[in-house]
Amino acid sequence: MATTIALPKAASFLIEQDYASYTSEQHAVWAELVRRRMPQLELHAAQEYLDGFDTLCLPYDRLPDLAAVSAKLERRTGWNTTPVSGFMPAPAFFEMLAARRFPTTTWLRGRGSLEYTPEPDIFHDVFGHVPMHAHPVFADFLAHYGQLCSRIQDEEILERIGRVFWYTVEFGLIRQGGQVKVYGSGLISSNGECSNVIHGGCEVHSFDLAEVLRTPVKVDEMHHLLFAIESFDEIYEAMHTLEARIDGGSRLDD
């Protein structure tokens, strides 16, 4: 059973997943989405993502029961997939990450939006994000990100740090076995974005914190530049570097 944690900023967004209300059509849509993505991911996803998918026993043929996923996840890294009503303001989002509670939407896109939905749904949140939360180093990195951001009030600094989140958690790449593999949820859950990387549609630079911090996020087009880490220790250490610079009053990209 999930440990009860006070989340005052996020409290009004917390809901229960009404699993029994999902229709057979919705379960079929989930199965179709998984069927479409897994062949590409089995070849091009980071091993840590694939291991996490198997460890959490995410279903191929039906929508996931978030309580069951959380029971496995909490035993491994202390994380929990927590149902929320939808988009959350930044302070509530950071509060949840700091507490190792991943805000997870419960609605699912329809058949008319199999390729893309502008708002994150349960497929993006669970299929795209949650397997990585089973990896201890990534799990610690993500919690540290939430802890750091939850105590920062400066919007400009938050926007800059948000670029680290974007180019890792959402669109992160890693070099494994001489190849570039995907682990960011925006790549995992999107055939178009993943194919763009695989087929050379964007440059891949080695992860460099200063370059990431000065690379603006563009949400309305395919990426032309992404960053590949060599190990997840890199992004874990990047958070400690950012924290030291902020606490020391230094420029973020010094």
Could you please describe the fold and organization of this structure?
The chain has one domain (23-248): Phenylalanine Hydroxylase (Orthogonal Bundle), CATH 1.10.800. Helix 4 (90-98) packs across helix 6 and helix 6 (136-149) runs parallel beside helix 11. The mean pLDDT is 95. By secondary structure, the protein is an alpha/beta fold. A four-stranded mixed β-sheet has the order 4-3-6-5. A two-stranded parallel sheet has the order 1-2. 40% of the residues are buried. The chain has helices spanning 24-44, 47-55, 66-77, 90-98, 122-129, 136-149, 155-170, 185-188, 191-198, 209-213, 232-248; strands at residues 80-84, 101-105, 173-176, 179-182, 203-206, 225-229. 48% of the residues lie in helices and 11% in strands.
Name its key features:
single chain, 254 residues, 11 helices, four-stranded mixed sheet, 11% strand, globular
